[in-house]
Amino acid sequence: MKRLKSLTILPLLLLASLTACGSNGLSWKSGDKVYYDRIIFDTSDETAPNPHIYLGKDGKVTSVKLGRDEIKFGYSGKVLTLEADALRKAGPGEKSATVVFKDGKKQTIDIFNATKFIKTAEDFQGIGADAKACQGYYILANDIDCSSIDNFEPIGQYFEETDPTNFYFHGILDGDGFAIKNVTCSYSDSPRGTSDQNYPSNYDVWSGSPKFENEAHQAGDNIGIFQVIGSSGVVRNIAFDNCKVHGRTIVGIVAGNIMGRAENILINSNCSVKMDTHFYDDDCNTGAAFGIVAGSGNVKNVISLTSQVSILGIYEDYGPNYAGQDGNGWDHPAGSPDNNANWWRFAGVSKEIPDTSTKLTDSNGKQSNGVYSVVGKCWGQVTDSIGCAFKVTPYGESQFDVAFGHTHTAINKPTSGDSDLGSIENCDVFSTTNLKKASTYASYNFSSDVWNIADGSFPTLKHNINRFDIAK
After folding, report:
1. Chain segment 210-228, per-residue pLDDT in tens
2. Residue 395: CA atoms inside 13 Å, Cβ hemisphere, count?
3. What three-state secondary structure class fits 315?
4. What string of DSSP letters covers 253-281?
5. How far, in Å, CA of 333 to CA of 329, rounded?
6. What would the mean pLDDT of 296-300 be, rounded to a whole number?
7. pTM score, two decimals?
8. 3-state SS assignment for residue 226
9. Contacts of residue 390, Cβ cutoff 8 Å, sequence gap at least 6
10. Beta-carbon neighbour count of residue 184 at 10 Å?
11. Helices (H), 316-441
């Protein structure tokens, strides 16, 4: 159903006093919130009122079924009212109700039964409390200011692929056009040089004073506001504003790794993402939105306005097994005092294709130090998305234009798959000037029901995209 204009709803006020259909006398009154597309209901709120939805059809409603159960309802002025207790009883999840009219016609309405409306930073952090919380259905009730949280703990838990204690976000988070704001999310902030240099490092993690409380996050792998969005997880209709994320490897503002679905995501220009190293590894990358889009991942309608995506040239990794190892001439030279050091240095240098002397290039035909505008690496599918253009300078190499993202190229890393994998379609990067031009978005599928796109300003997401208020 298309968005209703304000003039469309004025006649509803004249009909508000009509008696509701159904034997229960349920109805709406002037000033009530009336949904036009789907009902959004907080099942955790015992005081939540009966929800209303505009159906736009004259006639008498004879029944409403939620699943197999008939539920109490009222119908007045083309507005259907459902009994709140029936929705609470149905429990959280994406539901649908079948409305039957006297003339035999039927209409289906979608219902988002939220586990909880997210209203505060603490509510939002609580989504990652445990595996059960990560399977909930959430919707933002307003912008969420996370400045009260010193260091946001990534949502979900990942140790390594086969660890039985892993739990990913398998729920739904719908922003309803609102923003997550002022997030600081960092695994380490300890430049700790061994000589006259101060390199970014994981010294505080190694020395027993990590910034994250959850052990799964402390190594800095797969770092974002979500650590891993699982294969059935959905994140949609959300803006990210002044969010700053710092990880060791595989880093993105929204998620380090997405195996599920994301759509209608806006990353504002004041956001930043920083990765310390990619370990000479074709998979360990950073992008403004995601470090990796996994094979089951499906991403669309992402707009990133930030150019603040970076990897530092040299990283010092502290570990228990480095002492006594011989390096590449400047790590742990044999016979030097540094040979017994408990650190190892990595640099974002140009790589070579295994067993050859040919420089490694990504699916864009360029060398890379692991920095991309939106998606670090895509094994799955990314469509109809846009990033900000900026320059990338691999360590010790020449500067070039950043790419939107890249896909798995088998020749670069045959141990990760012997065929080329992943798809990035109808995605590109644009200058800040062009990101403020409506014509830039003309060939991309950004719904006008969700996005505000106009000349002279950056795009924004529409607030309350699934409801409207009846005038008092």
Report:
1. 999 999 999 999 999 999 9
2. 19
3. strand
4. SSEEEESSEEEEEEE-TT-EEEE---TT-
5. 5
6. 98
7. 0.91
8. strand
9. 307, 309, 373, 401, 402
10. 17
11. 432-435
